[in-house]
């Protein structure tokens, strides 16, 4: 193990670091090529970072907004799976930064650079295949590597300052999680100076925190590297016989072995807290977690403040016209604890604890409760939608009930692993309509005596 002199845990000298110089020498790489298979049909034609979130954004907008608010404006987005929706969003929403000032959001799709059959083989390989571009065009001193599929607010500049002062070659962002849930993360143990002493990827028996035995310290998939160290580590990793081409399984353990790995507690740089002051970070990689994260937004005191002008979330606001509400009975309480985007038309409908994206139409006597309704959805009369996610451009026919009868929902649509949430897509509705049409046609023939049973 290489000797590495630790600095005492004190952050006073960070005031001497100039943010402008750090930003000028930092390249941000956002890993946005993942499919997100546990979101099922929601990611059939878009990658997970391109999935809609919060009534007005895509998931990747939270990571990009963190970069913008942290004054880190040299950004590359690495894409692979079903990238068209994401690339289109980046072009339309994030092309405003002036390149003549050294600010950009560059798109780095998989380009089969090794051979014609080789795409990105893992997170580390995705960065490795872009090293020639990094050296030739960007020339960074520090590289900040982020995931593009989490919901949180974070000051990355603070993490960079801590990285530089500690003398680390690699710093990993970390968050406290319950030990019972730690099996899904890379887990680390640190000393009093936050130097990492142990790192285990998705362990069956997660190491506990010394001061909190029922909690573990989990990797957030956020890394800061000295560029030269990153190049060297990737060069050695790519020729290793037993590599997984992955940061958590290969590169981070190597930094631990070299004695240059430090942790950065999210608590130090979190810019999004709830009313009680607790930090907020969510992986919305399942139907249940995606739906629950939206429910976090519509409580009396939201877990994440989307209206914070001090740390705004930037995206591509779509508001072709104002939202319109028309009620004949003005004494009826019909809208409660919900987010409703522009262009929505609500007529004599009850809406509670729901998130409606733009251009949603809800007709008379329909009830929407604890639902996430994506753009362009049309909901007919006398419908009842509860605990569901309705994909964009769905047409819900009059009288349809979703989230009311679990057995019926399981036959017609996609239900989450917990059985609590129902996903509805246009293809599911088309299949259901075809089945009902066929059934009606058979019934008509039976009644006419033209069909032999």
From TrEMBL:
Could play a key role in the communication between the regulatory and the substrate sites, annotated site positions: 80, 119
Residue ranges of every copy of the Glucose-1-phosphate adenylyltransferase/Bifunctional protein GlmU-like C-terminal hexapeptide domain listed in the record: 322-422
Top-tier EC class: transferase
Domain Nucleotidyl transferase: 29-298
Classification via Pfam families: Hexapep_GlmU, NTP_transferase
Gene Ontology molecular function, alphabetical: ATP binding; glucose-1-phosphate adenylyltransferase activity
Pathway(s) it belongs to: Glycan biosynthesis; glycogen biosynthesis
Binding-site positions, alpha-D-glucose 1-phosphate: 120, 186, 201-202, 219
Catalytic activity entry: alpha-D-glucose 1-phosphate + ATP + H(+) = ADP-alpha-D-glucose + diphosphate
Keywords for this protein: ATP-binding, Carbohydrate metabolism, Glycogen biosynthesis, Glycogen metabolism, Nucleotide-binding, Nucleotidyltransferase, Transferase
EC numbers on record: 2.7.7.27
GO biological process: glycogen biosynthetic process
InterPro entries xrefs: ADP-Glc_PPase, ADP_Glu_pyroP_CS, GlgC_bac, GlmU/GlgC-like_hexapep, NTP_transferase_dom, Nucleotide-diphossugar_trans, Trimer_LpxA-like_sf
Functional description taken from the UniProt entry: Involved in the biosynthesis of ADP-glucose, a building block required for the elongation reactions to produce glycogen. Catalyzes the reaction between ATP and alpha-D-glucose 1-phosphate (G1P) to produce pyrophosphate and ADP-Glc.
Quaternary structure and partners: Homotetramer.
Family: Belongs to the bacterial/plant glucose-1-phosphate adenylyltransferase family.
HAMAP family, sorted: GlgC (MF_00624)
Protein's recorded name: Glucose-1-phosphate adenylyltransferase
Originating species: Neisseria dentiae
């Amino acid at each position: 193990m290489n000797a590495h002199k630790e600095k005492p845990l004190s952050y006073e000298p960070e005031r001497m670091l100039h943010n402008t110089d750090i930003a000028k020498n930092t390249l941000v790489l956002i890993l946005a090529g993942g499919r997100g298979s546990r979101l099922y049909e929601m990611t059939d034609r878009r990658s997970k970072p391109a999935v809609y979130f919060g009534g007005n954004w895509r998931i990747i907008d939270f990571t990009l907004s963190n970069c913008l608010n942290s004054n880190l404006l040299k950004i590359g987005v690495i894409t692979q799976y079903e990238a068209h929706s994401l690339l289109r969003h980046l072009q339309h929403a994030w092309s405003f930064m002036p390149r003549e000032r050294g600010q950009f959001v560059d798109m780095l799709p998989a380009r089969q650079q090794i051979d014609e059959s080789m795409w990105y083989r893992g997170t580390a390989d995705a960065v490795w295949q872009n090293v020639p571009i990094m050296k030739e065009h960007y020339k960074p001193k520090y590289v900040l590597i982020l995931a593009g599929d989490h919901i949180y607010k974070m000051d990355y500049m603070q993490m960079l300052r801590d990285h530089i002062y500690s003398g680390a070659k690699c710093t990993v962002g970390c968050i406290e999680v319950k030990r019972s849930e730690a099996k899904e993360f890379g887990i680390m143990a640190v000393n009093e100076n936050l130097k990492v002493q142990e790192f285990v990827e998705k362990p069956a028996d997660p190491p506990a925190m010394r001061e909190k035995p029922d909690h573990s310290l989990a990797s957030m998939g956020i890394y800061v590297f000295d560029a030269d160290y990153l190049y060297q580590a990737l060069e050695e990793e790519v020729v290793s016989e037993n590599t997984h081409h992955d940061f958590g399984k290969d590169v981070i353990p190597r930094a631990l072995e070299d004695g240059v790995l430090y942790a950065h507690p999210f608590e130090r740089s979190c810019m999004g807290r709830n009313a009680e002051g607790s930090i907020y970070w969510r992986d919305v990689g399942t139907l249940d977690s995606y739906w629950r994260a939206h429910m976090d937004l519509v409580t009396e005191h939201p877990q994440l403040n989307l209206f914070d002008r001090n740390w705004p979330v930037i995206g591509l606001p779509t508001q072709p016209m104002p939202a319109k509400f028309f009620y004949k009975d003005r004494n009826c309480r019909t809208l409660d604890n919900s987010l409703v985007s522009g262009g929505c038309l609500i007529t004599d409908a009850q809406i509670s604890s729901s998130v409606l994206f733009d251009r949603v139409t809800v007709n008379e006597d329909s009830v929407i409760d604890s639902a996430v309704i994506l753009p362009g959805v049309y909901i007919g009369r006398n419908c009842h939608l509860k605990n569901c996610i309705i994909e964009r451009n769905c047409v819900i026919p009059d009288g349809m009930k979703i989230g009311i009868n679990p057995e019926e929902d399981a036959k017609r649509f996609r239900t989450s692993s917990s059985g609590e949430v129902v996903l509805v897509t246009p293809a599911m509705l088309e299949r259901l309509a075809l089945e009902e049409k066929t059934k009606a046609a058979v019934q008509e023939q039976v009644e006419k005596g033209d069909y032999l049973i």
